[in-house]
Design goal:
Layout lengths: L6 E3 L17 E3 L1 E2 L6 H4 L4 E2 L3 E6 L5 H14 L3 E6 L4 H8 L8 H4 L3 E5 H8 L8 H18 L1 E7 L2 H5 L4 H17 L3 E7 L26 E10 L2 E11 L8 E7 L2 E6 L8
Bound molecules: adenosine-5'-diphosphate (ADP) and magnesium ion (MG).
The site of magnesium ion has 4 residues, from helix 2.
């Protein structure tokens, strides 16, 4: 499916969101429904198809669980999905997510959920050095997009891009990498979550750089940014999720409480918790 396939003219009423304003036809991007409890409501229906999002968060904030649920929910609807694991070996990752009721190992066996170890991908491409050149970065983008093309992947996760970006020697090259990757995946109709490890959430002091990601260079070129973090409430750390930016849709910008339940991620308005945000 091409990126343009994700845009429809809402001339004919098709339920909620398909209305016309003052008789003017409204264009609305079709959505990739995440199926994560509460997230599609926050995004007014889901992620605009073909978007590349940054999911930045602190350690243990729920990034891997959320991203895994995103791909698994796609696989459950028959979509081909791919997950590049860079922070933990794929075997461990699968063992961890098996505990959640949303996960079904059948999806892996049927080829709907394809989990790749980033290390193996690097070795396969001969990228064993500490610092990548532009050619190395291009080879990596080509490898990822070839996999997406071959399998027909519509949901992709790279968990995380942080260690990968540390191998890219300058900000401009990181930007080029993310821009090219995002553009190519969008034309293939693939909706992508790039996970970023961060130590604290918010704006940097003095430098004026936002800290939604590790590098502060990715934000402007990506289609969306979600952050996951912790709020201290009387000595208990509550997890939260906030959508900072999402091109192509209206969305809530409030913080939502994120609970990791046996069924996966649950997002509820913070008010329920009596937390000032
Ligand atoms: N089966 C489970 N049920 C509920 N919470 C869990 C379960 N397994 C792990 N967790 C919680 O999830 C956290 C890890 O979540 P994860 O998605 O891996 O975070 P991140 O990728 O942001 O580091 C653990 O620290 C633990 O608190
Ligand atoms: Mg993780």
């Amino acid at each position: 499916m091409g990126a343009s396939d994700g845009i429809e003219l809402l001339g004919k009423p098709r339920g909620p969101g398909s209305d016309t304003m003052l008789g003017t036809p409204q264009y609305k991007r079709d959505r990739c429904v995440t199926g994560v409890h509460g997230l599609d409501e926050i995004l007014r229906g889901g992620i605009p198809y073909g978007s590349t999002l940054l999911v930045g968060g602190t350690c243990g904030s729920g990034k891997t669980t959320l991203a895994m649920e995103f791909v698994v929910n796609g696989a459950a609807m028959g979509e081909a999905t791919a997950y590049f694991a860079a922070t933990e070996p794929s075997v461990k990752l699968l063992e961890n997510v098996r505990q959640f009721s949303f996960f079904d190992m059948d999806m892996v066996d049927k080829g709907l959920l394809n989990v790749f170890d980033m290390d193996v991908t690097y070795s396969w491409l001969g990228l064993t050095k500490a610092t990548f050149t532009m050619d190395d970065v291009n080879a990596l983008v080509k490898a990822i997009t070839d996999i997406v093309n071959t399998i027909g992947v519509t949901r992709l996760v790279i968990d995380s891009v942080t260690t990968l970006c540390y191998k890219i020697p300058n900000d401009q090259l990181i930007r080029d990498f993310l821009f090219t990757l995002g553009k190519t995946l969008a034309t293939q109709g693939c909706t992508t979550m790039l996970i970023a490890e961060i130590t604290s959430v918010g704006m940097s002091h003095g430098g004026g750089r936002s800290l939604w990601s590790s590098f502060g260079v990715e934000e402007a070129i990506l289609d969306g940014i979600m952050v996951l973090g912790d709020i201290d409430r009387r000595g208990h750390l509550l997890r939260y999720l906030q959508v900072i930016k999402m091109r192509g849709t209206d969305h809530s910008r409030a913080k939502y409480a994120l609970e990791l339940t046996p069924n996966g991620v649950m997002l509820t308005p913070m008010l329920k918790w009596g937390v000032d945000v």
